[in-house]
Amino acid sequence: DAKTTQPNSMESNEEEPVHLPCNHSTISGTDYIHWYRQLPSQGPEYVIHGLTSNVNNRMASLAIAEDRKSSTLILHRATLRDAAVYYCILRDVSYSNYQLIWGAGTKLIIKP
Amino acid sequence: DSGVTQTPKHLITATGQRVTLRCSPRSGDLSVYWYQQSLDQGLQFLIHYYNGEERAKGNILERFSAQQFPDLHSELNLSSLELGDSALYFCASSATGGNYNEQFFGPGTRLTVL
After folding, report:
1. C-alpha A38, offset from chain centre
2. How far B79 CA sits from the closest chain A CA (Å)?
3. Residues 6 or more apart from A65 whose CB is under 8 A from it?
4. Which residue is closest to B46 within chain A, CA to CA?
């Protein structure tokens, strides 16, 4: 399974944009990039996913490098509620298991 | 609220015992996934069921088993429990097993083995 590398933790100020990086240098052409987050004492929740093009939704934006070896999750205006562990996950389209392989994630700390 | 329910919320038991964790997926979702999360760690995939059939197994111990019933709810059975089995157990569901489908997670069951 292709691996992802994320910083252990990041801090940001409330109301400012946050850029969460993820390296996936061994990504294959059939790997989707998924982001989930886990708020304290809750189950994970889906944030966004993409394959090649940048993606936007109501929660965040996903910027994918042209060579696909890295990506960045962008929270445009962080709030205290965005404090969570963010997981970057690769999911192989051709892989029959459909499971998500989780790393340690990035703990995002939001300062008021 | 993800629409996925898990019971019980908390479970405290002793070593050597057997427990059953229950998961009801979102209405209409055919896939159910089970994950284990030990303290301050990422999630470990255990098993995936799709429409009643086992699709994939991850790092699931032989002492653990699961099934998905005709009404699509799923149960995870943990037997001969050990202290190291203490963890959060999450269930997730998705519409299909497709790789582009987001998974919706339940609130988890916290298992404590004493």
Report:
1. 11
2. 24
3. A71
4. A99
Instruction: Give chain B's residues under pLDDT 70.
Output: 97-100
- Which conformational region is residue B36 in: left (phi greater than 0), alpha (psi within -120 to 50 degrees), or beta? beta
**Pairwise CA distance, residues A50 & A20, whole Å:** 15
Asked if B105's CB is within 8 angstroms of A44's CB, the reply is yes
Give the start-end residues of each E strand in chain B: 5-7, 10-13, 19-24, 31-37, 44-50, 53-57, 64-68, 74-78, 87-94, 104-105, 109-113
| Number of neighbours of residue A17 by Cβ within 10 angstroms | 12
pLDDT tens digits for A16-33? 999 999 999 988 888 889
Q: How far, in Å, CA of A20 to CA of A6, rounded? A: 8
